[in-house]
Amino acid sequence: MKKGWSTVIGLAILCVTLSGCVEKKPVKDEATKQELPAIETLKPNEKLHWIGNDGMAESVQFTDVPVVVDLSAYKGQPIARGDVVYFQTDAGSPRSGFDVARVVGLPGERVIVEDGQIRINGGKLEAFYGIGPLFSSTKLAAEYNRDIEIPDNEYFIVGDAWQRNFSGSFVEGPIAANRIKGQVVGWVDRHLYSDDPIPESAQVRALLERGLSIGMSDMLQLLNALTGLEEALTVPYTTFVGKWFLSDMPHMVQAMAMLGPEQTEAIIAIVADFSATSDIERIILDTGTLLEGEWVDRHERDTVLALLTAIEAKGDEIKVPEEEVTPEESPQAHDEQTAIEDTAALISALKQRDAEKVKSLVTASDYYGFYGLEEAQEIVRGFEANFDLETLRAVADPMGLSHHPAIGQYAYRLEDDGNNSKPQAEANTNESLMLTVRYESDGGVVYNTPYISYFPFAERMATQYIELIQGNKAEELTGFLNPDDLEIPVEVAERTIALYAKAVDLKSAAIRYVGGFDFVVEDKKGAFHPFTIVYGDGLMGIQDEYVEYPG
Q: Which InterPro entries match (predicted)?
């Protein structure tokens, strides 16, 4: 009897020793849904992305349709298992330099893939994406076997259709967090290359009559329909497309980049025609700044360059002959050396944290003539918080499309030896790292960077936003959140207030600046919620997941 028990105990010890005998607790993900919501109206922080491969083609929502990426998703929340992320890659030579895939493993976890089953720290991943496709042979399935310890700040991400993955962790290994630029949050229900008939002229006119309120799927179909339409270059069409371009350049470019070459060329011609009847120099400058955004992929960059070429050609056609320009109309004399000296003066004042000098420089033009010492102090604060002032420098960017000496505008890239070192600045081109110096006809110098144009008002706006929430002032909050006269129901503001009341203790809450244009609302117990001040075209607004804008 004793011998029998010892045999059982020995077997039990042996069983525990052998990993195959003990099944670890499964890792479950019941929250992630395979289906994405259809999105019609894009927010400023969202972009369209054409996947361009079948790596996620287990669902119709990832096949021949644009997906919607929230570029700010991970500013206030961590990357989670099950998320479909938008990441930088050159693997598989995607035309855009970006791809999408699903997060399977998190930093510090051990991911084992064997015979088509994903395990996390030994436990089966019980989710629709935890099991790979049915392979035709054991040998083919074995090609996807992995046993990886995920380093800190890296993620194991795969496309749902494993055998069609040309990027992601099956190809590249774990993906660093700084390569993940956003989260896929929806799709646009429009299969651009389907057999759906292109709308006839009457249908196109009906869409035009609805104006800019039409949804993104109709907008894409409309752009497709304008190709080859005889009346496409008449005023109603050029006005509509031109106004959309001016009101929402990023999303317009993203939409154009998804169309075929013929369609893109047709839309570019329409935008160029409209520009000839508008402030064409301003349109050229604004179009050039699109290349400075983090959202721009390679195909979109090509579209912007083609747009600029067409618009500038129109500008040459309508340019006033030089002999017709009177001396009074001639711009103030300026050159590259003058711009370098004026830029150096600003950088020097910032390095010395001399708000009085900064005020003197930026108010030399009427453009910032209303700025006082308080605004200048905020400019210094913004630079101090986001740059190493001791090593801050402005590097000329003569090849940048914001550089237009002929009209008195010079472009510089802001760099330092800290967070904004040259390699990072080149990899993460965005508006906050750019400085333009523009000379007005009255001789004034206009310095343009978000830390001068918008940052002085960011904390005031953030404070006012939270004070309205703390005061339970839903009606006033509705007006405060109202972007570009969009009718926002008071229920939106009421829900925002309610969500904040659940998240933090509003009585003890205060705002805290994080960096860039990011803030958090934090109470005395440490509970907090993030939000961002967004800006553009002289306007500022709030980006907050607790604010659910209509559409």
A: LexA/Signal_pep-like_sf, Pept_S26A_signal_pept_1, Peptidase_S26
